[in-house]
Amino acid sequence: MLNEKIAKLLNEQINKELYSAYLYLDFANYFEDEGLNGFAHWYEVQAQEERDHAMMIRRYLIDCGHRVTFGEIAKPDKVFKTKLDPLTAGLEHEKYVTSLITAIYAEAFAAKDFKTMQFLDWFVKEQGEEEKNAEDMIKKMQLFGTEPKGLYMLNKELEARVYNAPATAE
Ligand code: FEO
Predict the structure, then answer these.
(1) Spelled out in words, what is the top-level CATH class assigned to the domain 4-163?
(2) Burial level of 9, CB count in 10 A (0-12/13-18/19+)?
(3) pLDDT in tens, 83-127
(4) Domain boundaries defined on the chain
(5) Does the Cβ of 17 fall within 6 Å of ligand 1?
(6) How far apart are CA 105 and CA 15, in angstroms?
(7) Any atom of ligand 1 within 6 Å of the Cβ of 130
(8) Alpha carbon distance 73, 21 (integer Å)
(9) Measured between alpha carbons, how far is 7 from 35 in angstroms, rounded to an integer?
(10) Does the global pTM surpass 0.85?
(11) I want to staple 50 with a disulfide (CB 3.0 to 4.6 A). Which of 21, 32, 125, 129 is the partner?
(12) Residue 53 beta carbon below 6 angstroms from any ligand 1 atom
């Protein structure tokens, strides 16, 4: 069993990850509406990865002997004025998620809960990658997405993203 505070934070993180999936699907909805199916696809894959994160944490809690409980998933309420807006909102969101993972890690460190620290190592690395992906998307959009041909090519590139389930996900 984990200490109560760590178990509670991990349980809350399941909700945050599912909200992330919901948020990225909302981005995908926006891009579908804009006629950019490659961008929409990229965020659909991202949503799938977020669901995986939720499932990994759920499984960890269960395997540690904890009862998982669910709360409401918040409604994504972002309004986008430009095609760059979801991309910057994505980076902002990933930075927020990194701060949540870091906070749980700090609790585990304080409690000498090495098992949870080891479990969270994967998430720390993943957050680094997700922030980098979000930054890259913004850079590419700023470089190429401001004129139609560049936007078309970028959309094509994003359409090619392949979903890979993490080795440890259910
Ligand atoms: Fe599960 Fe995008 O962090």
Answers:
(1) mainly alpha
(2) buried
(3) 999 999 999 999 999 999 999 999 999 999 999 999 999 999 999
(4) 4-163
(5) yes
(6) 17
(7) yes
(8) 10
(9) 42
(10) yes
(11) 21
(12) yes
